Amino acid sequence: MEGELIAAVATGAARCAIGVIRLSGSGAARCAGAVFRASDGRALAEHPPRTLVYGALSDRDGREIDRVLATWSPAPHSYTGEETAELQCHGSPAVLQLALDSLFAHGARQAGRGEFTRRAFLNGKLDLAQAEAVMDLIDAETPGAVRQAAGQLSGALSRRVEKVYAALVDVMAHFHAVLDYPDEDIDPFTAHTIREALEGADGALEALLATYRRGSMLTRGVPCAIVGPPNAGKSTLLNALVGYERAIVTDIPGTTRDTVEERCVLGDVLLRLIDTAGLRETRDTVERIGVARSRAAMAEAGLILVVLDRSRPVAVEDLALVEEAMALAPTILVWNKADLPPAGTPAVRGELPPVVELSARTGAGLERLGEQVARSLPAPAGGTEGELLTNARQAEAAGRALEALRRAAAALAAGVTPDAVLTDVEEALSALGELTGRTVREDVTARIFQRFCVGK
Asked: Which of 59, 180, 306, 332 is 20 to 30 A from 254 (CA-CA)?
Protein backbone atom coordinates (compact mmCIF):
# COMPACT_ATOMS: atom_id res chain seq x y z
CA MET A 1 0.00 0.00 0.00
CA GLU A 2 1.58 3.27 -1.13
CA GLY A 3 2.06 5.78 1.70
CA GLU A 4 2.31 2.95 4.24
CA LEU A 5 5.30 3.45 6.53
CA ILE A 6 8.29 1.36 5.39
CA ALA A 7 11.82 0.98 6.71
CA ALA A 8 14.99 -0.77 5.56
CA VAL A 9 18.75 -0.72 5.86
CA ALA A 10 19.93 1.30 2.84
CA THR A 11 23.62 0.37 3.09
CA GLY A 12 23.50 -3.42 2.78
CA ALA A 13 23.99 -6.24 5.24
CA ALA A 14 27.81 -6.30 5.43
CA ARG A 15 29.71 -4.82 8.37
CA CYS A 16 30.81 -1.26 7.54
CA ALA A 17 31.76 2.02 9.22
CA ILE A 18 28.38 3.70 8.72
CA GLY A 19 24.98 2.07 8.31
CA VAL A 20 21.92 4.01 7.20
CA ILE A 21 18.31 3.09 7.97
CA ARG A 22 15.74 4.77 5.75
CA LEU A 23 12.03 5.32 6.45
CA SER A 24 9.33 6.60 4.10
CA GLY A 25 5.61 7.12 4.50
CA SER A 26 3.12 8.81 6.75
CA GLY A 27 4.55 9.29 10.25
CA ALA A 28 8.20 8.62 9.31
CA ALA A 29 9.53 11.39 11.59
CA ARG A 30 7.30 10.27 14.45
CA CYS A 31 8.41 6.65 14.12
CA ALA A 32 12.11 7.56 13.90
CA GLY A 33 11.64 9.88 16.87
CA ALA A 34 10.19 7.02 18.90
CA VAL A 35 13.54 5.17 18.78
CA PHE A 36 15.80 8.26 18.67
CA ARG A 37 16.33 10.74 21.51
CA ALA A 38 17.99 13.99 20.45
CA SER A 39 20.69 15.24 22.80
CA ASP A 40 18.85 18.57 23.14
CA GLY A 41 15.69 16.83 24.33
CA ARG A 42 13.47 17.94 21.43
CA ALA A 43 11.52 15.54 19.24
CA LEU A 44 13.06 14.82 15.83
CA ALA A 45 10.15 16.49 13.98
CA GLU A 46 10.73 19.69 15.99
CA HIS A 47 14.13 20.13 14.33
CA PRO A 48 14.44 21.85 10.94
CA PRO A 49 14.00 19.46 7.99
CA ARG A 50 17.11 18.05 6.29
CA THR A 51 19.28 18.88 9.30
CA LEU A 52 21.44 16.28 11.04
CA VAL A 53 20.57 15.85 14.70
CA TYR A 54 22.81 14.03 17.21
CA GLY A 55 21.35 11.69 19.79
CA ALA A 56 20.86 8.18 21.17
CA LEU A 57 19.28 5.21 19.43
CA SER A 58 17.28 2.70 21.46
CA ASP A 59 16.08 -0.86 20.93
CA ARG A 60 12.42 -1.88 21.28
CA ASP A 61 12.86 -2.15 25.09
CA GLY A 62 14.19 1.41 25.35
CA ARG A 63 17.81 0.43 25.97
CA GLU A 64 20.44 2.59 24.29
CA ILE A 65 22.32 0.73 21.53
CA ASP A 66 24.18 3.48 19.65
CA ARG A 67 24.93 7.17 19.30
CA VAL A 68 23.70 8.29 15.90
CA LEU A 69 22.72 11.13 13.58
CA ALA A 70 19.12 11.51 12.43
CA THR A 71 17.32 13.67 9.88
CA TRP A 72 13.85 14.00 8.40
CA SER A 73 12.17 15.56 5.34
CA PRO A 74 8.50 16.50 4.95
CA ALA A 75 6.44 15.52 1.92
CA PRO A 76 6.75 16.27 -0.95
CA HIS A 77 10.33 17.52 -0.50
CA SER A 78 12.09 14.15 -0.32
CA TYR A 79 13.46 11.41 -2.55
CA THR A 80 10.20 9.45 -2.49
CA GLY A 81 7.88 12.47 -2.37
CA GLU A 82 6.63 11.22 1.02
CA GLU A 83 7.66 12.13 4.53
CA THR A 84 11.01 10.45 5.13
CA ALA A 85 13.57 9.97 7.87
CA GLU A 86 17.06 8.50 8.11
CA LEU A 87 19.15 7.18 10.97
CA GLN A 88 22.92 7.12 10.46
CA CYS A 89 24.31 4.46 12.79
CA HIS A 90 27.58 2.65 13.21
CA GLY A 91 27.56 -0.15 10.65
CA SER A 92 27.26 -3.20 12.87
CA PRO A 93 24.66 -5.58 11.40
CA ALA A 94 23.52 -6.32 14.96
CA VAL A 95 22.93 -2.62 15.72
CA LEU A 96 21.05 -2.12 12.45
CA GLN A 97 18.82 -5.14 13.06
CA LEU A 98 18.00 -4.04 16.62
CA ALA A 99 17.12 -0.58 15.29
CA LEU A 100 14.91 -2.04 12.58
CA ASP A 101 13.12 -4.28 15.07
CA SER A 102 12.46 -1.21 17.19
CA LEU A 103 11.04 0.70 14.20
CA PHE A 104 8.83 -2.27 13.31
CA ALA A 105 7.50 -2.28 16.86
CA HIS A 106 6.48 1.37 16.37
CA GLY A 107 4.46 0.82 13.20
CA ALA A 108 6.86 0.51 10.28
CA ARG A 109 7.14 -2.54 8.07
CA GLN A 110 10.05 -3.98 6.09
CA ALA A 111 10.48 -2.28 2.70
CA GLY A 112 10.53 -4.46 -0.40
CA ARG A 113 13.11 -4.48 -3.19
CA GLY A 114 13.22 -1.08 -4.88
CA GLU A 115 10.22 0.16 -2.93
CA PHE A 116 11.72 3.58 -2.13
CA THR A 117 12.57 4.28 -5.77
CA ARG A 118 9.24 2.88 -6.92
CA ARG A 119 7.46 5.35 -4.66
CA ALA A 120 9.63 8.13 -6.10
CA PHE A 121 8.44 7.06 -9.58
CA LEU A 122 4.78 6.80 -8.58
CA ASN A 123 4.92 10.19 -6.87
CA GLY A 124 6.44 11.89 -9.92
CA LYS A 125 9.89 12.46 -8.45
CA LEU A 126 11.52 10.28 -11.11
CA ASP A 127 10.32 8.96 -14.44
CA LEU A 128 10.95 5.33 -15.35
CA ALA A 129 14.15 5.98 -17.30
CA GLN A 130 15.54 7.91 -14.33
CA ALA A 131 14.49 5.15 -11.93
CA GLU A 132 16.35 2.56 -14.02
CA ALA A 133 19.39 4.84 -13.92
CA VAL A 134 19.45 4.57 -10.12
CA MET A 135 20.26 0.87 -10.33
CA ASP A 136 22.65 1.43 -13.24
CA LEU A 137 24.52 3.92 -11.06
CA ILE A 138 24.70 1.45 -8.18
CA ASP A 139 26.01 -1.26 -10.54
CA ALA A 140 28.40 1.02 -12.49
CA GLU A 141 31.92 -0.44 -12.71
CA THR A 142 33.66 2.15 -14.91
CA PRO A 143 33.84 5.97 -15.09
CA GLY A 144 31.95 5.85 -18.39
CA ALA A 145 29.12 3.83 -16.86
CA VAL A 146 28.96 6.26 -13.93
CA ARG A 147 28.69 9.26 -16.24
CA GLN A 148 26.04 7.57 -18.38
CA ALA A 149 23.91 6.60 -15.37
CA ALA A 150 24.30 10.03 -13.74
CA GLY A 151 23.27 11.75 -16.98
CA GLN A 152 20.25 9.49 -17.35
CA LEU A 153 19.33 10.11 -13.71
CA SER A 154 19.42 13.84 -14.38
CA GLY A 155 16.90 13.33 -17.22
CA ALA A 156 19.10 13.41 -20.36
CA LEU A 157 17.49 10.36 -21.97
CA SER A 158 14.00 11.47 -20.93
CA ARG A 159 14.53 14.88 -22.52
CA ARG A 160 15.70 13.25 -25.75
CA VAL A 161 12.59 11.06 -25.86
CA GLU A 162 10.35 13.96 -24.87
CA LYS A 163 11.37 15.97 -27.94
CA VAL A 164 10.08 13.22 -30.23
CA TYR A 165 7.00 12.66 -28.10
CA ALA A 166 6.11 16.38 -28.06
CA ALA A 167 6.51 16.70 -31.84
CA LEU A 168 4.09 13.82 -32.43
CA VAL A 169 1.62 15.15 -29.87
CA ASP A 170 1.66 18.49 -31.72
CA VAL A 171 0.66 16.69 -34.93
CA MET A 172 -2.17 14.88 -33.16
CA ALA A 173 -3.37 18.09 -31.50
CA HIS A 174 -3.30 20.01 -34.80
CA PHE A 175 -5.38 17.34 -36.53
CA HIS A 176 -8.02 17.23 -33.80
CA ALA A 177 -8.16 21.02 -33.54
CA VAL A 178 -8.92 21.29 -37.26
CA LEU A 179 -11.46 18.46 -36.99
CA ASP A 180 -13.23 19.73 -33.86
CA TYR A 181 -13.19 23.46 -34.62
CA PRO A 182 -13.73 23.84 -38.38
CA ASP A 183 -14.92 27.45 -38.04
CA GLU A 184 -11.79 28.60 -36.20
CA ASP A 185 -8.86 30.28 -37.97
CA ILE A 186 -6.50 27.26 -37.73
CA ASP A 187 -3.90 26.37 -40.35
CA PRO A 188 -5.20 23.47 -42.46
CA PHE A 189 -3.92 19.97 -41.66
CA THR A 190 -2.10 18.62 -44.73
CA ALA A 191 -0.24 15.50 -45.75
CA HIS A 192 2.91 17.63 -45.95
CA THR A 193 2.47 18.59 -42.28
CA ILE A 194 2.37 15.02 -41.05
CA ARG A 195 5.06 13.83 -43.48
CA GLU A 196 7.56 16.35 -42.08
CA ALA A 197 6.76 15.34 -38.53
CA LEU A 198 7.08 11.63 -39.31
CA GLU A 199 10.41 12.09 -41.08
CA GLY A 200 11.82 14.11 -38.19
CA ALA A 201 10.66 11.59 -35.59
CA ASP A 202 11.94 8.68 -37.71
CA GLY A 203 15.43 10.15 -37.87
CA ALA A 204 15.50 10.93 -34.15
CA LEU A 205 14.36 7.42 -33.16
CA GLU A 206 16.75 5.72 -35.56
CA ALA A 207 19.62 7.69 -34.00
CA LEU A 208 18.36 6.80 -30.52
CA LEU A 209 18.19 3.08 -31.32
CA ALA A 210 21.75 3.24 -32.65
CA THR A 211 22.92 4.15 -29.12
CA TYR A 212 21.77 0.83 -27.65
CA ARG A 213 24.90 -1.12 -28.55
CA ARG A 214 27.13 1.45 -26.87
CA GLY A 215 24.80 1.81 -23.87
CA SER A 216 24.58 -1.95 -23.39
CA MET A 217 28.36 -2.26 -23.52
CA LEU A 218 28.72 0.45 -20.87
CA THR A 219 26.37 -1.28 -18.45
CA ARG A 220 26.83 -4.99 -19.27
CA GLY A 221 30.38 -4.92 -20.63
CA VAL A 222 32.00 -5.45 -24.03
CA PRO A 223 32.06 -9.12 -25.05
CA CYS A 224 35.78 -9.77 -25.52
CA ALA A 225 36.88 -13.08 -27.05
CA ILE A 226 40.38 -14.30 -26.19
CA VAL A 227 41.41 -16.54 -29.08
CA GLY A 228 44.54 -18.22 -30.41
CA PRO A 229 46.21 -21.56 -30.93
CA PRO A 230 46.55 -24.09 -28.07
CA ASN A 231 49.10 -23.22 -25.35
CA ALA A 232 49.47 -19.59 -26.45
CA GLY A 233 48.59 -18.48 -22.92
CA LYS A 234 44.92 -17.50 -23.33
CA SER A 235 43.78 -18.90 -19.98
CA THR A 236 46.84 -17.48 -18.24
CA LEU A 237 45.95 -14.07 -19.67
CA LEU A 238 42.36 -14.34 -18.45
CA ASN A 239 43.59 -15.30 -14.96
CA ALA A 240 46.02 -12.37 -14.95
CA LEU A 241 43.30 -9.91 -15.97
CA VAL A 242 40.72 -11.05 -13.39
CA GLY A 243 43.31 -11.46 -10.64
CA TYR A 244 42.76 -15.09 -9.65
CA GLU A 245 42.92 -18.63 -11.05
CA ARG A 246 39.61 -18.62 -12.90
CA ALA A 247 40.65 -20.92 -15.76
CA ILE A 248 42.66 -24.16 -15.57
CA VAL A 249 46.18 -23.78 -16.95
CA THR A 250 48.43 -26.72 -17.93
CA ASP A 251 51.18 -27.44 -20.46
CA ILE A 252 48.88 -29.90 -22.23
CA PRO A 253 47.47 -28.48 -25.50
CA GLY A 254 43.67 -28.41 -25.60
CA THR A 255 43.15 -28.06 -21.83
CA THR A 256 40.35 -25.53 -22.37
CA ARG A 257 37.43 -27.39 -23.95
CA ASP A 258 34.63 -24.88 -23.37
CA THR A 259 34.32 -21.12 -23.15
CA VAL A 260 35.05 -19.56 -19.74
CA GLU A 261 33.57 -16.13 -19.01
CA GLU A 262 34.55 -13.49 -16.47
CA ARG A 263 34.28 -9.71 -16.10
CA CYS A 264 37.07 -7.22 -15.59
CA VAL A 265 37.78 -3.52 -16.08
CA LEU A 266 40.69 -2.84 -18.42
CA GLY A 267 41.60 0.61 -19.69
CA ASP A 268 38.46 1.97 -17.97
CA VAL A 269 36.41 -0.38 -20.19
CA LEU A 270 34.22 -3.10 -18.69
CA LEU A 271 35.00 -6.33 -20.56
CA ARG A 272 33.14 -9.63 -20.52
CA LEU A 273 36.17 -11.81 -21.13
CA ILE A 274 35.56 -15.10 -22.95
CA ASP A 275 38.44 -17.55 -22.77
CA THR A 276 38.08 -19.98 -25.66
CA ALA A 277 39.38 -23.37 -26.71
CA GLY A 278 42.57 -23.32 -28.78
CA LEU A 279 41.82 -23.05 -32.48
CA ARG A 280 43.23 -26.01 -34.37
CA GLU A 281 42.14 -28.99 -36.42
CA THR A 282 41.31 -31.92 -34.13
CA ARG A 283 39.57 -35.30 -34.21
CA ASP A 284 38.61 -35.08 -30.53
CA THR A 285 34.82 -34.71 -30.50
CA VAL A 286 34.69 -32.63 -27.30
CA GLU A 287 37.53 -30.36 -28.41
CA ARG A 288 35.86 -29.84 -31.79
CA ILE A 289 32.74 -28.60 -29.98
CA GLY A 290 34.97 -26.23 -28.01
CA VAL A 291 36.57 -24.91 -31.21
CA ALA A 292 33.11 -24.30 -32.69
CA ARG A 293 32.14 -22.34 -29.61
CA SER A 294 35.35 -20.35 -29.89
CA ARG A 295 34.44 -19.25 -33.40
CA ALA A 296 30.90 -18.39 -32.25
CA ALA A 297 32.39 -16.22 -29.49
CA MET A 298 34.52 -14.43 -32.08
CA ALA A 299 31.48 -13.75 -34.26
CA GLU A 300 29.59 -12.14 -31.34
CA ALA A 301 32.53 -10.24 -29.82
CA GLY A 302 32.85 -6.48 -29.56
CA LEU A 303 36.62 -6.88 -29.11
CA ILE A 304 38.95 -9.76 -29.98
CA LEU A 305 42.32 -10.46 -28.36
CA VAL A 306 44.35 -12.78 -30.59
CA VAL A 307 46.98 -14.34 -28.35
CA LEU A 308 50.12 -15.78 -29.99
CA ASP A 309 53.19 -17.31 -28.36
CA ARG A 310 56.10 -14.93 -29.02
CA SER A 311 58.61 -17.68 -28.18
CA ARG A 312 57.44 -19.87 -31.09
CA PRO A 313 57.52 -19.29 -34.84
CA VAL A 314 54.33 -17.81 -36.25
CA ALA A 315 52.34 -20.26 -38.38
CA VAL A 316 50.32 -19.44 -41.47
CA GLU A 317 47.23 -20.46 -39.51
CA ASP A 318 48.04 -17.82 -36.88
CA LEU A 319 48.09 -15.02 -39.43
CA ALA A 320 44.89 -16.34 -40.99
CA LEU A 321 43.28 -16.15 -37.54
CA VAL A 322 44.39 -12.52 -37.15
CA GLU A 323 42.84 -11.64 -40.51
CA GLU A 324 39.62 -13.45 -39.58
CA ALA A 325 39.40 -11.57 -36.28
CA MET A 326 40.02 -8.19 -37.91
CA ALA A 327 37.10 -8.80 -40.25
CA LEU A 328 34.76 -9.42 -37.30
CA ALA A 329 35.53 -6.80 -34.62
CA PRO A 330 38.21 -4.43 -33.30
CA THR A 331 41.22 -6.65 -32.73
CA ILE A 332 44.41 -6.51 -30.67
CA LEU A 333 47.30 -8.88 -31.38
CA VAL A 334 48.83 -10.01 -28.08
CA TRP A 335 52.41 -11.31 -28.34
CA ASN A 336 52.44 -13.37 -25.15
CA LYS A 337 55.35 -14.95 -23.22
CA ALA A 338 57.57 -11.89 -23.56
CA ASP A 339 59.52 -13.27 -20.57
CA LEU A 340 60.90 -16.03 -22.86
CA PRO A 341 63.46 -15.66 -25.68
CA PRO A 342 61.64 -14.60 -28.87
CA ALA A 343 61.49 -16.82 -31.92
CA GLY A 344 62.27 -13.85 -34.17
CA THR A 345 60.17 -11.31 -35.98
CA PRO A 346 57.88 -13.05 -38.47
CA ALA A 347 57.56 -11.93 -42.05
CA VAL A 348 54.03 -10.61 -42.27
CA ARG A 349 52.16 -9.69 -45.39
CA GLY A 350 49.27 -7.27 -45.14
CA GLU A 351 48.16 -5.03 -42.30
CA LEU A 352 48.32 -6.08 -38.66
CA PRO A 353 46.04 -4.84 -35.88
CA PRO A 354 47.52 -2.98 -32.89
CA VAL A 355 50.18 -5.15 -31.22
CA VAL A 356 50.94 -5.46 -27.50
CA GLU A 357 53.84 -7.53 -26.14
CA LEU A 358 53.33 -8.88 -22.64
CA SER A 359 53.84 -11.76 -20.28
CA ALA A 360 50.58 -13.09 -18.88
CA ARG A 361 52.62 -15.19 -16.43
CA THR A 362 54.48 -12.25 -14.85
CA GLY A 363 51.97 -9.49 -15.58
CA ALA A 364 54.50 -7.36 -17.46
CA GLY A 365 52.76 -5.41 -20.22
CA LEU A 366 49.18 -5.68 -18.92
CA GLU A 367 49.08 -1.91 -18.41
CA ARG A 368 49.96 -1.39 -22.07
CA LEU A 369 47.17 -3.79 -23.02
CA GLY A 370 44.74 -1.66 -21.02
CA GLU A 371 45.88 1.47 -22.83
CA GLN A 372 45.35 -0.23 -26.18
CA VAL A 373 41.89 -1.46 -25.20
CA ALA A 374 40.93 2.14 -24.38
CA ARG A 375 42.21 3.28 -27.79
CA SER A 376 40.42 0.45 -29.59
CA LEU A 377 37.09 1.21 -27.91
CA PRO A 378 37.02 5.00 -27.57
CA ALA A 379 34.12 6.75 -25.88
CA PRO A 380 31.92 8.68 -28.31
CA ALA A 381 32.61 12.40 -28.64
CA GLY A 382 30.63 14.62 -26.19
CA GLY A 383 26.93 15.21 -25.96
CA THR A 384 25.86 11.58 -25.44
CA GLU A 385 26.33 10.97 -21.71
CA GLY A 386 23.00 9.99 -20.22
CA GLU A 387 21.25 9.86 -23.61
CA LEU A 388 21.99 6.23 -24.46
CA LEU A 389 19.55 3.34 -24.34
CA THR A 390 21.06 0.92 -21.84
CA ASN A 391 18.72 -2.05 -21.59
CA ALA A 392 16.62 -4.32 -23.79
CA ARG A 393 13.33 -2.96 -22.46
CA GLN A 394 14.20 0.56 -23.59
CA ALA A 395 15.47 -0.60 -26.98
CA GLU A 396 12.36 -2.74 -27.57
CA ALA A 397 10.00 0.17 -26.79
CA ALA A 398 11.95 2.56 -29.03
CA GLY A 399 11.97 -0.08 -31.80
CA ARG A 400 8.18 -0.50 -31.63
CA ALA A 401 7.74 3.26 -31.81
CA LEU A 402 9.93 3.43 -34.90
CA GLU A 403 8.05 0.56 -36.57
CA ALA A 404 4.71 2.29 -35.92
CA LEU A 405 6.01 5.54 -37.41
CA ARG A 406 7.20 3.74 -40.52
CA ARG A 407 3.80 2.08 -40.91
CA ALA A 408 2.25 5.54 -40.65
CA ALA A 409 4.62 6.92 -43.31
CA ALA A 410 3.85 4.00 -45.63
CA ALA A 411 0.11 4.50 -45.16
CA LEU A 412 0.45 8.22 -45.87
CA ALA A 413 2.38 7.51 -49.07
CA ALA A 414 -0.36 5.07 -50.13
CA GLY A 415 -2.98 7.80 -49.80
CA VAL A 416 -4.64 6.59 -46.59
CA THR A 417 -6.71 9.26 -44.84
CA PRO A 418 -4.98 11.22 -42.02
CA ASP A 419 -7.22 9.80 -39.27
CA ALA A 420 -6.13 6.26 -40.18
CA VAL A 421 -2.46 7.33 -40.42
CA LEU A 422 -2.65 8.87 -36.97
CA THR A 423 -3.74 5.54 -35.49
CA ASP A 424 -0.16 4.35 -36.01
CA VAL A 425 1.15 7.63 -34.62
CA GLU A 426 -0.87 6.98 -31.45
CA GLU A 427 0.75 3.55 -31.22
CA ALA A 428 4.18 5.17 -31.53
CA LEU A 429 3.29 7.59 -28.74
CA SER A 430 2.22 4.72 -26.52
CA ALA A 431 5.54 2.90 -27.10
CA LEU A 432 7.52 6.09 -26.43
CA GLY A 433 5.53 6.55 -23.24
CA GLU A 434 6.84 3.21 -22.00
CA LEU A 435 10.38 4.58 -22.06
CA THR A 436 9.63 7.15 -19.39
CA GLY A 437 6.65 5.47 -17.73
CA ARG A 438 3.78 7.51 -19.16
CA THR A 439 1.98 4.40 -20.38
CA VAL A 440 3.88 1.50 -18.83
CA ARG A 441 1.92 -1.51 -17.55
CA GLU A 442 1.94 -2.46 -13.89
CA ASP A 443 3.58 -5.85 -14.53
CA VAL A 444 6.42 -4.17 -16.44
CA THR A 445 6.92 -1.71 -13.59
CA ALA A 446 7.02 -4.57 -11.09
CA ARG A 447 9.71 -6.41 -13.08
CA ILE A 448 11.86 -3.30 -13.29
CA PHE A 449 11.89 -2.68 -9.55
CA GLN A 450 12.49 -6.35 -8.72
CA ARG A 451 16.04 -5.72 -9.96
CA PHE A 452 16.67 -3.28 -7.12
CA CYS A 453 18.14 -3.89 -3.70
CA VAL A 454 16.16 -3.64 -0.49
CA GLY A 455 16.62 -0.13 0.88
CA LYS A 456 16.84 1.54 -2.56
From this structure: 332
